[in-house]
Specification:
The termini are far apart. The protein has helices spanning 12-23, 30-60, 69-81. The protein is an all-alpha fold. 68% of the residues lie in helices and 0% in strands.
Length: 82
């Protein structure tokens, strides 16, 4: 994968935090930390979208139907017992 050089602007406080993470050995350099933050945000966004899609599908499936939990347990018990 090709890399592209970017210039970003951060506050003094953000720069100090970035430097502290690099100094602590969590990251080799600033770029590694920024790439990690981007990957984490991409993962978080994908997770949120998956939940959003599941909610849409659930709402589209219609009203919930009543269930008989005791009957469910009985069926599962019979299946397990053979």
């Amino acid at each position: 994968m090709a890399t592209i050089r970017k210039t970003i602007t951060v506050t003094d406080q953000q720069d100090a935090w970035i430097e502290s993470q690099v100094s602590a050995g969590r990251f080799a350099n600033d770029s590694e930390l920024i790439r990690d933050l981007i990957r984490r945000e991409q993962d978080r966004t994908a997770g949120v979208e998956a939940i959003r899609q599941a909610l849409i599908e659930g709402e589209a499936s219609g009203a919930p139907q009543p269930s008989d939990f005791r009957a469910f347990l009985n069926r599962k018990t019979k299946q397990h017992e053979g």
